[in-house]
Amino acid sequence: MSEVTISPDTQMQEIESSLSGARRALFQKYHVGGCSSCGFQPTDTLKQVCENHNLLDVEEVISWLHESHVLDKKMQISPEEVHNAMNNGIALKLLDVRPAEDRQFASVEGAIAMDREKAQEIMDTWDKDSPLVMMCHHGISSMDAAAYFIGHGFTNVKSMTGGIDGWAQTVDTNVPRY
User: Fold this and answer.
1) Same domain, 43 and 113
2) CB of 175 closer than 8 Å to CB of 164
3) Which is the most buried residue in 2, 16, 26, 112, by most CB within 10 A?
4) For residues 77 and 158, is the Cβ–Cβ distance under 8 A?
5) Residue 105 maps to which CATH number?
6) Is the overall model pTM greater than 0.90, yes or no?
7) Does some domain include residue 4?
8) How far apart are alpha carbons 126 and 95 in whole angstroms?
9) Is residue 65 domain-shared with residue 86, that is, in the same domain?
10) Is residue 124 classed as helix, strand or coil in its secondary structure?
11) Same domain, residue pair 99 and 162
């Protein structure tokens, strides 16, 4: 994934392939790209998207995309770092946000399955400073989950880069890849 220089004429598909969290960032701040009423086409330019969404300032949007990319990087933790923390007695909670059927194929010992009920329990009862690490298949959905919890006041939330696939490649090769 190579980073491109974003200009008003950059197509959305280029932005999204360069900045994996671009769609999440646009939706979070501007309500752009999250549903059919606020969506865009991959070939639309950033300028077109801004014009079609309440005349957003293109330069402000470019700045936000870069800022959110930096924030995404800070939100990530490697499988090796998670493994080391768990082995060194750091009381982090590894939350598996994959669907139940995916968890049947592969799992990490000690990971907590997170469904809607568990997410609500965490929101309602867990300390907002609890160290949480979100894990999915490849590290995409876990970024969304981490951003969601951060947006609800949690202060120590990370997303495991590469997800369980990264774990299987770098920490425990006995974990099946799928």
Assistant:
1) no
2) yes
3) 26
4) yes
5) 3.40.250.10
6) no
7) no
8) 13
9) no
10) helix
11) yes
Instruction: Determine what percent of the chain is predicted with pLDDT higher than 70.
Output: 98
Which of 35, 38, 50, 136 is labelled catalytic?
Answer: 136
41: number of Cβ within 10 Å:
11
Residue recorded with tokens 């495991």 = 160
Give 154 or 27, the one with higher predicted confidence: 154
- Looking up tokens 């939100």 gives 75
Please indicate whether residue 38 is annotated as part of the active site.
no
Separation CA 141–CA 143 (nearest Å):
5
Half-sphere exposure of 75 (CA within 13 A, CB side): 25
Asked whether residue 2 is domain-assigned, the answer is: no
Q: Which two tokens stand for residue 168?
A: 């299987």
What DSSP assignment string belongs to 37-97? GG---TT-BHHHHHHHTTT--HHHHHHHHHHHHHHHHHTEE-HHHHHHHHHTT---EEEE-
Hey, how many other C-beta atoms are within 10 angstroms of the C-beta on 81? 17
Same domain for 106 and 62 = no
Number of domains in the chain: 2
